[in-house]
Design goal:
Elements lengths: L1 H6 L20 H24 L7 H28 L4 H5 L4 H46 L6 H4 L10 H17 L3 H26 L3 E2 L2 E2 L1 H19 L13 H26 L7 E2 L5 E2 L2
Antiparallel strand pairs: 1-2, 3-4
Helix pairs in contact: 2-3, 2-5, 2-8, 5-7, 8-9
Length: 297
C-alpha cells in the first residue's frame, strides 16, 4: 500500500515526522501515551461484548465473531486516519485549527460532503454512547446481583414491565451526565476512561494469577499472565505518570494522583466491605451444584 502511495506521488514523510509543529517541541513520551487511547477503544469494544454475553443468543460463537468484526473495523479506521494525515497540505496551519479533522474534510470534500460526514460521526458517537451505557449497566447489574456492590439489592432490581435493570441504567446515566458536565475537558475524560479500563484488565489478570497455575495441553503458561499484567500496568503508567497540561488545572500530575486516589478508595471498599461479605457467603458469583444448576447464598 505504501509503495502504491509513493508511486502516486504522496508525501509519506508526514507519517515519519514527529513533534509539535506549533511550538517546535519534540513530541516525546506523552504523544506515545496518547496514542495508546486508540487501543483502549478497541479493548472497550471487547469488554462490551463480554459484558453483554449473557444477553446474546449462542454467546460462544457470537462474542468471538463480534470481536473479530471489531478488529476489522479498527483496521479500517487506522487506514482512514492515515489517509487523513496524508491529505494534509500544511501541517502547521492544520494543527492550529480548533477542529483539525473538520478542517481537512472541508478542504478535501467541500461543505456538502462535510455535512454528510458529520452526520455519520454524530450517529456513530450516539451508537457508541448507547453501547457503552448498555455495557456499563449490565456490568453494574451483574455485580449487584452477586452482592458485590453497596446498595446491591436496589441496583439489582428488575423493572417488571420492561424486564430491564432500571435502577442500574438510571445510576449509569446520572454518573455519565455528571462526568460530562463537571469535566469539560474531553482529553481528561478520554484519559480517565482509558486508565480505568486498563486497571480493570490488570485486576482480572491478577485475579487469574492468584487463582492458580494456567495449564494448557499439559504446559504451564504462567509467564504469559505475568507478561500481560506487566503490559497492562505499563499502559497505566504511560497514561498517568508523564506530566500533562490540562486546561483549568494547575497540577500537571493530576491523572497520576487521581488514579492513586481511586485505587486507594477501591481497595478500602473491597477489603473493608466486599471481602468480608464474600468470606461469609453473602456475596460472590453463584456456585454450581453437583447437578450443574446454580445455587446462591
Amino acid at each position: 500500500m505504501f509503495a502504491l502511495l509513493d508511486w502516486r506521488g504522496v508525501n509519506l514523510s508526514k507519517l515519519a515526522s514527529h513533534g509539535n509543529f506549533s511550538s517546535g517541541q519534540s513530541a516525546g513520551f506523552s504523544a506515545f501515551a496518547l496514542s495508546l487511547l486508540m487501543g483502549a477503544w478497541c479493548l472497550t469494544g471487547f469488554e462490551a461484548a463480554a459484558d453483554l454475553a449473557e444477553e446474546m443468543h449462542d454467546p460462544r460463537r457470537t462474542v468471538p465473531r463480534q470481536c473479530s468484526l471489531l478488529a476489522g473495523f479498527r483496521a479500517f479506521g487506522f487506514l482512514l486516519l492515515v489517509g487523513i494525515v496524508l491529505s494534509i497540505d500544511d501541517v502547521r496551519a492544520t494543527q492550529g485549527q480548533d477542529s483539525p479533522l473538520i478542517s481537512v474534510l472541508q478542504q478535501r470534500f467541500g461543505p456538502h460532503w462535510l455535512l454528510a460526514a458529520l452526520v455519520v460521526v454524530a450517529v456513530s458517537i450516539f451508537a457508541c454512547a448507547i453501547a457503552s451505557m448498555a455495557a456499563a449497566s449490565r456490568l453494574l447489574f451483574s455485580l449487584s446481583r452477586d452482592g458485590m456492590l453497596p446498595g446491591a439489592r436496589w441496583l439489582s432490581r428488575i423493572d417488571p414491565h420492561r424486564s430491564t435493570p432500571r435502577n442500574a441504567v438510571i445510576l449509569v446515566w446520572l454518573l455519565s451526565t455528571a462526568i460530562v458536565l463537571l469535566l469539560r475537558q474531553t482529553d481528561l475524560i478520554s484519559s480517565v476512561s482509558a486508565v480505568a479500563g486498563y486497571l480493570g484488565y490488570a485486576g482480572i489478570i491478577l485475579a487469574a494469577l492468584l487463582a492458580g497455575p494456567l495449564v494448557i495441553a499439559g504446559a504451564r503458561l504462567d509467564s504469559l499472565r505475568w507478561l500481560a499484567l506487566m503490559w497492562a500496568l505499563s499502559l497505566v503508567l504511560a497514561l498517568t505518570v508523564p506530566p500533562t497540561d490540562i486546561p483549568g488545572w494547575n497540577d500537571k500530575y493530576l491523572p497520576a494522583k487521581a488514579t492513586a486516589f481511586a485505587l486507594m478508595a477501591g481497595s478500602a471498599v473491597y477489603f473493608g466491605l466486599i471481602k468480608r461479605r464474600i468470606r461469609e457467603g453473602l456475596a460472590g458469583p453463584p456456585q454450581l451444584s453437583d447437578k450443574g444448576s446454580e445455587t446462591r447464598p
